[in-house]
Amino acid sequence: MFLVEQMHKRKFQKLLKKEIDRMTAFKDQSYFDTLSAPKKILGREDKIQELLGMIVGYKKNFVPPLVSVYGRSGSGKSTLVKFVLDNLPDISTCIVNLRKSKTIFGASNLILEELQGKTITNSNGLNKAIENVESAIVQKLEHEKKNTLFILLDEADSILNDKRGNPSDFFYKLLTIIEDLKKQNYLVSIITISNNLFDQYNLDDRVKSRIGNNHILFDPYSKDEIVDILKEISDKALHEKVDLPILQQCAHLSSSIHGDARRAIDLLHSAAKLAIKENQPISKDHVAQANDLLDSDFVLQFLKTAPYHMKVICYVIGQSTFVSGKQWHYTSAIEKVYSNVLPEDKKNLGYRRVSDLLNELAQAGILESSTKTLGRYGSGKMYRLKFPADIIGKYFPEKFVLWEQMKNEYYSVNHDPDVKYNRDPRLKFDRFEGIKKYQELLGQF
Ligand SMILES: Nc1ncnc2c1ncn2[C@@H]1O[C@H](COP(=O)(O)OP(=O)(O)OP(=O)(O)O)[C@@H](O)[C@H]1O
Hints:
Blueprint: H1 9-23, H2 45-55, E1 66-71, H3 77-87, E2 92-97, H4 104-116, H5 125-144, E3 148-154, H6 157-160, H7 167-183, E4 187-194, H8 205-211, E5 215-218, H9 223-237, H10 244-258, H11 261-277, H12 284-305, H13 308-324, E6 329-330, H14 331-341, H15 351-363, E7 367-373, E8 379-385, H16 389-395, H17 397-414, H18 433-441
Parallel strand pairs: 1-4, 1-5, 2-3, 3-4
Antiparallel strand pairs: 6-8, 7-8
Helix pairs in contact: 4-5, 5-7, 9-10, 9-11, 10-11, 11-12, 13-14, 13-15, 13-16, 13-17, 16-17
């Protein structure tokens, strides 16, 4: 007698049939695929026009050396730029996603691989890699009998933040070969896609001056635009029509915090799967459940593989947000709490490295950043979590139980007429003695 039921062929067939039957609710699930190009592009005609205005000069022997396309995640940058390049006549393209490399040498190799299918080893150095890029461009254009090439560097932030390498030098070298190729009557233009304006990265003036004003900002989609995209997708992907309020809820949840078409599509897809599992039409409850699932899946997967100090920083922001209810935190405040919670045997990374890690967390989609001008004190960078703080807390269960206590104490002190900070609405988290006590308790991170 088995305690656990045996799996056998017939039973497996039954399970398979049940799952396939469920899938019949979908007409074509590929419409929900946010990793490939959408089958239909909606809106953004102004951005297509703007990009065309900058690059179509190749028809009259001119291209700008570099165009910077920037904006928040999921605002359609990659989709639109690729669509334009796919549909321009008589040009050649080299499309590379720099997320696959973290260094400028790796980036050169990705370009080389895309151009000629061959990479070189690290020992050859960056100069050799760039030299090979130049000859590979000539070979490709000769082979295709064309004279214009657009190099699309998607997710360029990955190398622009490379503090160990010299991204400025990398771009300068690329721009130099573009000038060289121009003398040989080849037109080459780089289009970078990043989350921030190219100018905001630490680049030399010699690079900035060559970029000039060729910037295109993709602002986040409005809720109505996201609803239109979702409507088109749900009509094609599902047999049953999805009610407008459901689409509006998906758009609302992904625009208020994320502002992201990809996120909205993933949300609707997950809600549809939950509804189909229950054999029900999609409800607002399914969307809310799917939203929680997406958030925690993403955060927990991220934390699982994040390096130690990054985890500590996530923890610090989670705790500060949860306890104080305050969403935005300055780098200096985060760094202070970070120093407090770090165990003695761990090396404190210091302000600059903490600030780098915060940047990386913003790039990874865990945090959102904002720069605040502080009058004569310059400007300060602030961060907030893109997810409810308790999702972070749940990753640290034994510490999370203390957060509730800290929150109560924070609240009571904050409302105690005898406490002198109570009138300051910006009560500083780290100045607060009650929290400090818990901070010490939590010291052994
Ligand atoms: N105008 C649009 N019409 C239809 N679908 C769109 C549109 N814009 C975005 N999408 C959908 O959203 C997904 C994300 O868009 P895209 O990858 O272009 O965003 P992005 O701004 O490049 O984001 P990231 O910075 O994260 O790479 C696409 O795969 C596509 O499915």
